[in-house]
Design a protein that fits this description.
2 helices, 0% strand
């Protein structure tokens, strides 16, 4: 897995609240939502090929067969 890098981001509070609501709707953390949006923007702009982030798998629920 690639190393993750932390950085400070200053952003308008209203924008941050809107992205947080969006993240909540998509069942993502705020950090994951921001990274998702940045990856999408880079891809849509044709600014480079990025590796897809690894998907997190949920454990099977009680009605799902783990085969």
């Amino acid at each position: 897995m690639a190393e993750r890098k932390a950085f400070l981001l200053r952003v308008d509070p209203a924008l941050l609240e809107a992205v947080q609501r969006w993240a909540d709707d998509d069942l993502r953390s705020l950090n994951a939502q921001i990274e998702f949006l940045l990856r999408k923007a880079v891809a849509d702009a044709g600014r480079g090929k990025l590796e897809k982030p690894p998907r997190t798998r949920k454990p099977p629920g009680p009605s799902e067969d783990p085969k």
